[in-house]
């Protein structure tokens, strides 16, 4: 199967296709594992809710985890609770013993174009707005005196899609003796609609995560977990989520460590800009025949639209995701008080150990799908066109009084990413496009976050360079480790009891899986990933010694001989100054001479002359 043929319609679909392919493996593995006769896990009493009974999931003949699935941590977000903070007082309750052996439906999302889901996942429950549930995988064995270390997983999916049922935590729980909790949260418009006022403040999906963490903090001891050793764990949107909890006042005291993979709160796509929100609201209101003003009427109208119709109908107006709600939300529900970078600069973040990193070709599938004849590389014209498109796409909308000199920005990026003498080599240019995307969208933000977090607490940084030798999917030889392709190793895929496809795992892949799982497990349990029998060196990251573990077959720390740190400085320090210098805000009045506030503002002068002529 060719991964690049699974997606259509843009970058969002290739991500969804890759995620769903991984999901097919997870779901098939879980569906194939049956509870063996002869042992029923004892029922547990959840105060304020009721009795629950789970089921055993066998990883091998002698190893098993106990799964408690579909546990509600908030009231269903229906009716007036749509576009509102989750209601947790009271929690859902029941009188009979609750059978917690099956996963709850995922939150509403648009999966209509998901080719892999149609082929492999026919038995997955259809999405439902009643979706605020979590699942717990409890390892076997005697409970430690201080309880099992707890790991709370926030799934990926660009805040648009995702399903906790895809993430079978039994192997990670059993192999690493961790309690794995997978959490559902509202997605797309249902999780992140903001009217930029109190009518709908947004960030509801993140508030769902807070509610789940509060539930875990108060009830995990019932399952044998430690309320004092809780690690947040996320990838892509889940990584952004985990890192946002580092700066949210609502998350204080609810966790003790964080792992953010291939995404965090300082990457450029983490928090959605406000500039285009009014335009999007107008489009949403027109789509469903709702009044755009006042906003309360718009929200009330959208509450009456069927959830699946709403989530599918607004997919063209995405992406949806986190926003700064500090100046619009009730103080009791402010999740993100200000821009993430400003909060870190001001020292307003939770001082906990973190692990974070990225893969060496995060967006490789995007380029493989989008570039014509990607196998033959790219020519110079394509190279410059792609860079310019990406630069323009990520800048906020401006008006005539603040024109942007895009050529100035492109010249700076071209100078860095096309050094001589290889400026015309098509394979070199293809690689530099991928480097541009990986470094700008993932790596630079991770490095910046690591620099802040390492001031007060242990911080560990990695880059995943190990390319799987096992043939999970067919992909071009030039693609190394794209987005999501470290997850099979971190989650222990070679040890899944069953797969829907016949996969014979390479011995080297198993070895790297064992090491990777152990390092992640060590961090989650002890903070230091290179202890407990690991004979590898993983130095802490500091500003003075910013060591990065290169995860390939050798697991070596970075140094100036094998790692180029300049990209971090370019994107975090230099490029923001280039952007500032490329935006020319003018003071232009009709029929008057031009007054421009930036010397050399030829764009301002041109704008002023044009406006004066038109008037």
Describe the protein's architecture and organization.
With 615 residues, the chain is of the alpha/beta class. It folds into two domains: 560 residues, 3-Layer(aba) Sandwich (Rossmann fold); 31 residues, no CATH class. It is 34% helix and 13% strand. The protein has 18 helices and 16 strands. The strands form three sheets. An eleven-stranded mixed sheet has the order 3-4-6-8-7-9-10-11-12-13-14, sandwiched between helices. The N terminus and C terminus are likely disordered.
Largest sheet: 11 strands, mixed
Output the CATH class name of the largest domain.
Answer: Alpha Beta
Report the average pLDDT across residues: 86
CATH architecture of the largest domain: 3-Layer(aba) Sandwich
Structural class: alpha/beta
What number of structural domains do the residues give? 2
CATH topology of the largest domain: Rossmann fold
The helix content, as a percent range, equals 25-40%
CATH superfamily of the largest domain: Alpha/Beta hydrolase fold, catalytic domain
Strand order of the largest sheet: 3-4-6-8-7-9-10-11-12-13-14
Rounded to an integer, what's the Rg over CA atoms?
25 Å
Report the β-strand fraction as a percent range: 5-15%
Low-pLDDT runs: 1-22, 25-35, 588-603, 605-615
The shape is globular
**N- to C-terminal distance:** 60 Å
- Tally of helical runs: 18
Number of strands: 16
Short key terms for the protein model shown above:
18 helices; disordered C terminus; alpha/beta; 34% helix; 16 strands; eleven-stranded mixed sheet; 615 residues; single chain; Rossmann fold
């Amino acid at each position: 199967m060719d991964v690049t043929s699974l997606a259509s319609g843009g970058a969002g679909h290739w991500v969804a296709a890759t995620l769903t392919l991984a999901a097919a493996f997870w779901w098939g593995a879980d569906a194939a594992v049956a509870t063996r006769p002869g042992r029923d896990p004892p029922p547990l009493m959840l105060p304020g809710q009721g009795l629950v009974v789970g089921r055993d999931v066998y990883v091998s003949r002698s190893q098993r985890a106990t799964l408690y699935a579909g546990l509600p941590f908030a009231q269903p977000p229906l009716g007036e609770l749509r576009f509102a903070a989750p209601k947790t007082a009271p929690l859902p309750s029941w009188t009979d013993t609750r059978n917690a052996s099956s996963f709850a439906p995922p939150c509403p999302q648009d999966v209509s174009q998901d080719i892999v889901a149609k082929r492999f996942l026919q038995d997955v429950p259809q999405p439902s707005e009643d979706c605020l549930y979590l699942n717990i995988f409890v390892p076997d064995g005697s409970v430690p005196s201080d309880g099992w270390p707890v790991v709370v997983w926030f799934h990926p999916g660009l805040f648009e899609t995702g399903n906790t049922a895809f993430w079978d935590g039994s192997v990670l729980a059993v192999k690493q003796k961790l309690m794995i909790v997978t959490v559902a949260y509202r997605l797309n418009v249902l999780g992140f609609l903001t009217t930029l006022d109190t009518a709908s403040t947004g960030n509801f999906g993140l508030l769902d995560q807070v509610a789940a963490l509060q539930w875990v903090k108060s009830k995990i001891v019932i399952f044998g977990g430690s309320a004092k050793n809780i690690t947040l764990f996320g990838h892509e949107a889940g990584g952004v989520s985990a890192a946002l909890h580092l700066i949210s006042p609502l998350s204080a005291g609810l966790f003790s460590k964080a792992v953010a993979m291939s995404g965090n709160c300082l990457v450029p796509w983490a928090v959605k800009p406000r500039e285009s929100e009014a335009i999007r609201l107008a489009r949403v209101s027109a789509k469903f025949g709702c009044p755009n003003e006042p906003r309360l009427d718009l929200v009330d109208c959208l509450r009456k639209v069927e959830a699946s119709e709403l989530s599918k109908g607004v997919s063209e107006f995405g992406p949806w995701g986190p926003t700064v709600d500090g100046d619009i939300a009730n103080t009791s529900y402010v999740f993100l008080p200000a821009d993430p970078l400003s909060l870190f600069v001001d020292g307003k973040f939770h001082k906990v150990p973190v692990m974070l990193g990225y893969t060496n070709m995060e967006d490789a599938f995007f380029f493989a799908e989008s570039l014509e004849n990607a196998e033959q590389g790219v020519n110079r014209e394509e190279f410059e066109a792609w860079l310019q498109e990406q630069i323009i796409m990520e800048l906020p909308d401006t008006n005539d009084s603040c024109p942007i000199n895009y050529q100035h920005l492109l010249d700076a990026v071209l100078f860095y990413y096309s050094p001589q003498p290889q400026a015309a080599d098509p394979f070199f240019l293809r690689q530099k496009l991928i480097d541009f995307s990986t470094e700008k969208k993932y790596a630079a933000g991770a490095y910046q976050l690591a620099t802040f977090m390492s001031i007060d607490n242990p911080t560990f940084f990695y880059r995943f360079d190990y390319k799987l030798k096992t043939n999970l999917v067919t992909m071009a030889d030039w693609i190394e480790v794209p987005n999501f392709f470290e997850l099979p190793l971190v989650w222990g895929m070679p040890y899944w009891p069953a797969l829907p496809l016949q996969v014979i795992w390479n011995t080297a892949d198993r070895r790297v899986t064992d090491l990777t799982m152990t390092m992640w497990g060590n961090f989650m349990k002890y903070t230091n990933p290179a202890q407990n029998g690991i004979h590898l060196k993983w130095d802490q990251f500091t500003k003075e010694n910013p060591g990065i573990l290169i995860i390939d077959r050798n697991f070596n720390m970075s140094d100036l001989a094998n790692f180029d740190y300049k990209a971090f400085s370019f994107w975090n320090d230099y490029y923001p100054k280039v952007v500032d210098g490329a935006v020319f805000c003018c003071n232009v009045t009709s029929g008057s001479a031009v007054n421009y506030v930036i010397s050399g503002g030829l764009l301002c002068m041109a704008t002023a002359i044009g406006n004066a002529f038109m008037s």
